[in-house]
Specification:
Length: 637
């Protein structure tokens, strides 16, 4: 529209210039000196004159025409002409042409309208050239069948999810195969899973395998400030999809528009609910949309409206969870295709050291490893770069420039040694594989654990062992320096130990006195004394006592372990002060009270050991209310 407006303005200006040219064409007359003109008036040689401002044209007695200009305004000229009986005429002021008058009168209004249209287009995101009144047009981006290069071979780590959606590909390729038997393909597929697990990638792979158009849009693109715009965009999107049928509509983050109705301040009339209502009608209304499959993704299925999830709309729910060790290995191999690798890189070993990583995390790991190799001008990426990348992602970048006093380094070494020793001695705990006193991120030191296998649930004994190891750092400081010299470095350890104990008692039913009961208001809310309405004051006191008993029992156990291994605590501190980082083999030497081997000796003796852990951490605080392993928080000063 802007181009058309400019074109019409140019045409108008050209026409005005043409008209002005025609109107201004006159026969040129010889110019006369004004003083000579006055003498001719005085001598009576002038017959008549035409006065047009300061321009004077006239005729002499010899029928000669002349033109002259007054250099200054001459008020006496009219009296002189009257005295000599010379005919004098005046010229009517010229009026602008009709087109010029229209342009002058309407230009301010046209300018205001143009400015209003411009800002409305910007506010509505309509700058793509679709016109100022395109508020209700769909913002879905269409990818043709030739534009999508993703296939199932590019999706790894979610074999069950791929099986659930594979029949969608068969239907889009050959719908009659199902229709002749009376079968109907699901109209909607809802993909549920944590962020970064590959929901969007799986949807693109379906379109890539079926070779059909792919409409992609975010849930937030429907909702605007004007009521009714979102519903109009939903209608327009399905109209476009009908023209490209069979096709796939992918709505990312559908919870932005699909939340439960009736919870907003606007009742049933606000924009989000109107948009949701229109989507419900389009998916399963009076008109069927054959050949259109709606795929939506969310990591918050609990907030979706029940009407979206009923059969006939999102018939099938596909869970795309975090990959297991085999899935992580497959994902790593997919991302490693684009990276030149050294012969010592083993995807299986890296997968074992990255529990809890999503597909996006693993892609980031491969990218960080490639960046590490590029910084040192290497031509291939080796296992060393993958280890560095893993440590950076889990613990943060090393802050070697941070200046620590010798006393602070010594106390940090004792603190981390306390965590490591208790974690090694307690009966059920993930193995300690690395301890470091190099500051990373906000932490002054880190003790890292490597799970032997992916865990789906935790036993009571395992949880209590974790609490004991969390207290190991604070207890080491207390035993070595005394109670008055204990620092604030264990604040995060205490917080996490208390959180685990609270959940054991109030949510997981692991208290002997209280039994398997839920004492939190909901699964995402921790028990808060005085705020919970589903228990008596007496029960709250019992809960407090049980939590304290769990913490005290494991605190005393950790203290006894450290006192029994005080010599190991001192030698591990010395090793940390010497090497700054010690690994699993060196920790084995320390716990066996042997001479600590050099890192170079480990590299030479254990290169062939493919089962040697090369990474892993429990820096990640437990997901889905599962407890996490240890990582060191920053020490406050």
């Amino acid at each position: 529209m802007a181009k058309n407006l400019i074109l019409w303005l140019v045409i108008a200006v050209v026409l005005m210039m043409v008209f002005q040219g025609f109107n201004g064409q006159t026969t040129p007359k010889p110019q006369k000196d004004y003083i000579s003109f006055l003498k001719d008036v005085e001598d009576g040689n002038v017959v008549e004159v035409l006065v047009d401002g300061q321009k004077i044209t006239g005729t002499l007695r010899n029928n000669e025409n002349f033109t002259t200009y007054m250099p200054i305004r001459d008020d006496k000229l009219l009296d002189q002409l009257l005295e000599k009986d010379i005919r004098a005429f005046g010229k009517e002021p010229e009026e602008a042409s009709l087109l010029g008058r229209i342009f002058i009168n309407w230009f301010p209004m046209l300018l205001l309208i143009g400015v209003w249209i411009f800002f409305m287009r910007q506010m509505q995101g309509g700058g793509g050239g679709r016109g100022a009144m395109s508020f209700g047009k769909s913002k879905a981006r269409l990818l043709g069948e030739d534009q999508i290069k993703t296939s199932f071979a590019d999706v790894a780590g979610c074999d069950e999810a791929k099986e659930d959606v594979s029949e969608l590909v068969d239907f889009l390729r050959d719908p009659t195969k199902f229709q002749k038997l009376g079968g109907k393909i699901p109209k909607g597929v809802l993909m549920i899973g944590p962020p970064g697990t590959g929901k969007t990638l799986l949807a693109k792979a379906i379109a890539g395998e079926a070779k059909v158009p792919f409409f992609t849009i975010s849930g937030s693109d429907f909702v605007e400030m004007f009521v009714g715009v979102g519903a109009s965009r939903v209608r327009d999107m399905f109209e476009q999809a009908k023209k490209s049928s069979p096709c796939i509509i992918f709505i990312d983050e559908i919870d932005a528009v699909g939340r439960k109705r009736g919870a907003g301040m606007g009742g049933g009339n606000d924009e989000r609910e109107q948009t949701l209502n229109q989507m419900l009608v389009e998916m399963d209304g009076f008109e069927g949309h054959e050949g259109i499959i709606v795929i939506a993704a969310t990591n918050r299925p609990d907030v979706l409206d029940p009407a979206l999830l009923r059969p006939g709309r999102f018939d099938r729910q596909v869970t795309v969870g975090l990959p297991d060790i085999r899935g992580r290995e497959q994902i790593l191999k997919v991302h490693m295709r684009k990276v030149p690798l050294s012969d010592n890189v083993q995807a299986s070993v890296i997968a074992r050291g990255t529990p809890g990583f999503s597909g996006a995390d693993l892609a980031n790991l491969v990218n960080e490893a490639a960046l590490f190799a590029a910084r040192t001008n290497k031509k291939v990426v080796s296992q060393e770069e993958f280890d560095k990348a893993k440590d950076k992602i889990m613990m943060g970048s090393e802050r070697k420039s941070m200046v620590m006093t010798e006393d602070e380094k010594t106390m940090t070494a004792y603190h981390e040694a306390g965590h490591a020793i208790v974690g090694r001695v307690v009966p059920e705990h993930d193995p300690v594989y690395k301890v470091s006193i190099i500051p990373r991120g906000r932490a002054l030191g880190v003790t890292m654990y490597l799970p032997e296998q992916d865990r789906l649930s935790y036993s009571k004994r395992h949880l209590e062992c974790m609490i004991s190891s969390l207290y190991g750092g604070r207890l080491a400081e207390e035993i070595i320096y005394g109670e008055e010299m204990v620092t604030t470095g264990a604040s995060n350890d205490i917080e996490r130990a208390t959180e685990i104990a609270k959940k054991m008692v109030t949510q997981w039913g692991l208290s002997t006195k209280l039994g398997p009961q839920l004492f939190a208001d909901d699964e995402n809310e921790m028990y808060m004394p005085g705020k919970s309405n589903n228990m008596s004051d007496e029960t709250a006191k019992v809960i407090d006592a049980e939590i304290k008993d769990v913490l005290d029992r494991n605190y005393k156990r950790a203290e006894q372990i450290l006192r029994d291994n005080i010599d190991v605590l001192h030698t591990m501190k010395d090793a940390l002060m010497k090497y700054e980082t010690i690994d699993a083999k060196q920790i084995d030497d320390l716990m066996a009270r042997r001479e600590v081997r050099q890192p170079a000796d480990w590299d030479n003796n254990d290169k062939s050991d493919s089962n040697t852990p090369t990474g892993g951490s429990s820096v990640d605080v437990g997901k889905d209310d599962k407890p996490a392993d240890d990582s060191e928080a920053s020490k406050a000063t």
